[in-house]
Design a protein that fits this description.
Number of helices: 13
Distance between the termini: 46 Å
Strand order of the largest sheet: 2-10-9-8-7-3-4
Largest sheet: 7 strands, mixed
Number of strands: 15
Structural class: alpha/beta
């Protein structure tokens, strides 16, 4: 029995929760947002900050830099320098800003699909072109298609790649050799890399993710890493993140872009949250990871026993599960709509993660086990009902 209670049910309805803004009979297991209260150390630090009672303009403190540097050294074996770090109000604002700053209109940005759907927004909304470089997803898991990736990077119009490390939605932890190959190919074709590493701290017990910038001098020189306590500690609404840019020339460009877009200044709670997460919440995170991956094992076993037409793609990172539903319905949009309409279970259709996501669904299992069990029962019920309609997809 651990120190922390992740079985506790917390009613989030009526709390302005984006995830829980659903019907009374609906169960949301879609957006990447956990249903656990965040670590006590973070809540205590926030309470102390609120008790002070003054919330004027905030600054980035030495404690913020020290917290990031110490955490990545101890947790991930990556030694960052203070000058490499720049505060940002979020990973997505940083990515959108960097797409504008590091490319020009109509240039192509490589993304390896299926991948986090907001990458498309950051690219298209800024007048750039998303170039989908499909990953290989099969019974062996998820891996990169380097032949296809090189072809896409060699396109003269390609100037930027957004890497998802660890991979969302599949939960793949990219190994050092894979990341070095990516860095070498990008360097060969003059392509810079934005590495989104926001999910890096949610990993299976005994596993470690590999920071992209740590694998080689080349990777460090050509990359911007986006990081945040938001996913691992469930504090996305506080808007606290950082970018790490080892190369001085690239860092100056990034710094100017973030400040021009006014996304480099913290609110009154942003540094407090990060410091408390990285200095007071390590044990909480370890127990959280154990709980989440027990949830994943439960779901994997349940699906194999009760919904054999669905195939779970194993992943060692994130609290998200990627599932192949093509034996039921190749149209994942239609299937997800049907599941929601008939049972109230709200999950993510794979199509929104790119063309390679068609025929897949994503389910968020970062919730108490009781909710996970209910979600799986609803999933099973919906599949039985759908199969009974004998509809074609």
């Amino acid at each position: 029995m651990g120190k922390y209670d992740f079985d506790k049910l917390v009613n989030r309805r009526g709390t302005d929760s984006y995830k829980w803004d659903v019907g009374e009979d609906e169960l949301p297991m879609w957006v990447a947002d956990m249903d656990y209260q965040t670590a006590p150390g973070i809540r205590e630090a926030l309470a102390a900050r609120v008790a002070h009672g003054i919330f004027g303009y905030a600054d980035v403190t030495d404690g913020w830099y020290e917290a990031y540097i110490s955490w990545w050294t101890k947790r991930h074996g990556f030694d960052m320098k203070k000058e490499w770090l720049i505060f940002a109000t979020g990973v997505v604002p940083a990515i959108s800003c960097l797409v504008r700053k590091l490319t020009t209109p109509a240039e192509k940005v490589v993304i390896q699909t299926p991948v986090y759907n907001i990458f498309f927004n950051s690219i298209v909304n800024n007048g750039r072109v998303p170039l989908e470089s499909p990953l290989i997803v099969d019974e062996y898991g998820i891996r990169m298609d380097f032949e296809q990736l090189e072809a896409d990077l060699s396109d003269p119009q390609t100037t930027l790649m957004i890497l998802c490390n660890p991979q969302n939605p599949g939960g793949k932890i990219w190994d050092a050799d894979t990341l070095r190959k990516v860095a070498d190919l990008c360097d060969k074709y003059g392509v810079r890399v934005i590495s989104d590493e926001v999910h890096c701290d949610i990993v299976a017990p005994g596993k470690r993710y590999v920071p992209f910038a740590s694998v080689s001098d080349t990777a460090a020189k050509i990359s911007v890493t986006c990081m945040s306590p938001s996913k691992a500690f469930n504090v996305a609404g506080i808007h606290s993140a950082a970018v790490c840019v080892p190369d001085e020339i690239l860092r100056n460009k990034v710094w100017r872009g973030l400040n021009t877009d006014e996304v480099a200044e913290p609110n009154s709670f942003a540094t407090t949250v990060a410091i408390a997460a990285y200095t007071k919440s390590s044990q909480w995170l370890d127990e959280l990871n154990g709980y989440i991956f027990d949830n994943k094992e439960y779901v994997d076993s349940y699906v194999k026993e009760n919904i054999p037409s669905v195939k779970v793609i194993k992943g060692d990172a994130t609290y998200l599960m990627w599932m192949d539903v093509r034996d039921i319905c190749a149209d994942s949009v239609r299937l997800c709509e049907y599941i929601r309409q008939t049972t109230g279970l709200y999950i993510s259709n794979g199509r929104q993660f790119g063309k390679a996501g068609e025929g897949f669904v994503r389910i968020n299992v970062a919730c108490p086990r009781e909710i996970v069990k209910l979600g799986m029962e609803k999933f099973k019920e919906a599949v039985i009902l759908f199969n009974g309609t004998k509809g074609k997809c």
